[in-house]
Amino acid sequence: MTTANQSRRKFITASTAGAVGATLTAAQWNKVLGANDRVRLGIIGPGDRGQQLMKEFINAPNAEFVAAADIYTRRHDEVKKLVPSIKTYNDHRQLLAAKDVDAVIVATPLHCHARHFLDTLAAGKDLFCEKTMTWSVDEADACLAAAKKASKRVIGIGQQHNSAGYFQDARKWAKEGLVGKVTSVESWMSRNTPRGKGQWVRPIPADCNAQNVDWKAFLNGRPNRPFDAHKFINWRLYWEFSGGNVTENMVHQIGWIIGVLDLPAPTAAYMSGGVFSEKDGREVPDTISVIMDFPNDLTVSWQSTFSNSRFGLGIRILGSDGTIEWLAGTTDMVTGKSASGWSYAPEKLNRPNSESIKGDAKGDNHYANFVECVRSRKEPNSSVELGYKSALAAHLANLSYRRKQRVTLDSARQSARQ
C-alpha cells in the first residue's frame, strides 16, 4: 500500500468513527430551525463551481449563507461580494463548529470531498456534497457507511439531472413498463475548444502563491512537495486530485440512468481512450469509451470527446417495448438544426397500439429541493445512495483505464484493502 493510501485509510477510519455524530428527529429539528425559519448555509470550497452553487442557493426560498471556508484567501473576498455579511474561515473545521450553520455545501476539489463529507456529518450538520461524491471506491464505502449511521441527517448530492423534468418523465415511463426489458443503454457527451486550448485549463491568478494558499490542506494527505499554482488551480487535469471527465461529466448521466431505471451499482467496467485532443501535460483522458455491466443482463455505454461538440449530450434507453431518448444540444447532420428534449417511442412489434410521447414535466429546482428537505427532513431528489452508486460507476471506469483491463467491483474493493 502506498504512503498516500495509508494516510487516506487512517483518515477514513478516524472520520467514519466520528461521523455517527449527533442526530435529531424531525420534531427536535423543528424546535431548532422553526417551520418558518430560513436555512442557514455554510460552504466549504467556494471556488468557481462553489460560487455558482452559492448563486443557485441564494435564489432558493428560505435559504441564506452565513459562513464560507476556503484555503485560498482570494475566495474570502469573492464570496463577500456575493454575501457581504458572510463570515469567512481558513479552516473548514471552524465553519463546522459554528452554531449558526444548519447545512453545509461541500464544493472542494474531488480528492477532498470525503474528508469534508465525513467531517460535516461528524459535526451534526446536514450536507449537500457536489458530485462526484468521492475520489475512490474505499472513500465511497466509508461515506455511505457514515451516512447510514447519521441516519437523521439530510444528505443531497449535486447530480441535478435527477431533479429535472427529463428525469421525472423518463422515470415515470420506465416504472409504467413502457420500455419493457432493457438490455442496452447508450449515452454520450461531446465538447470542443479552440485548437491549442485544452478543456478545463484555467488562468492562474497573480495572488495564487504559497502565502495565500494552505497547500498542505489542499494536498490532503498526499506526499508533500513545493507549492504548485498550476496544479492547485487546474487540479482536474491530474489523477492525484481528480477523476477527469468521468467524474466531472459521466457521473451525471450515469446517475440519471441509475435513477430512471432504479438500478443497483454496476458490477464491472471497461474503459479505453487517451489524451488525444490536446497534449498539454494533463494525465486524465479527453477521449473516452466506457462499457459498464449491471446486474440482470444490462450494459451501459458512455462515449466522450473534447474535440467535437456537434452531438452534445444524449442518452437512449433501448427496451424491448420502446425507447426513451433525452437529447441536449444535438445537431442534426442533414438539417443543421439543434435538438433538445426528451421523448418516448414505442416498439410497434410489442406495443402496436402505443403512441409516441413528448416529455413536458417541469421538474424541480435541485437546490431549492435540498433546502426544503432540510426543513421537512425528507430525502432529496439526488440521495446519498444514488451518489454512491454513481461514484462507484465512475471509479470502476477510471480503474479500468489505468489498469488497462476490465475491472469488477469486487476486485476494486480488494485492491483498496491491500
Fill in the CATH topology of the largest domain.
Rossmann fold
Q: Major sheet, described briefly? A: 9 strands, mixed
Q: Distance between the terminal alpha carbons, to the nearest Å?
A: 6 Å
Gyration radius over CA: 21 Å
Order of helices and strands: HHEHEHEHEHEHEHEHHHEEEEEEEHHEH
Q: CATH H-level name of the largest domain... which superfamily?
A: NAD(P)-binding Rossmann-like Domain
CATH class of the largest domain: Alpha Beta
The secondary structure category is alpha/beta
Which strand order spans the largest sheet, edge to edge or round the barrel? 14-13-12-11-7-10-9-8-15
What percent strand?
Answer: 15-25%
Low-pLDDT segments: 19-23
Fraction in helix: 25-40%
Name of the CATH architecture of the largest domain: 3-Layer(aba) Sandwich
Shape: globular
Number of strands: 15
Number of domains: 2
* Count of individual helical segments: 14
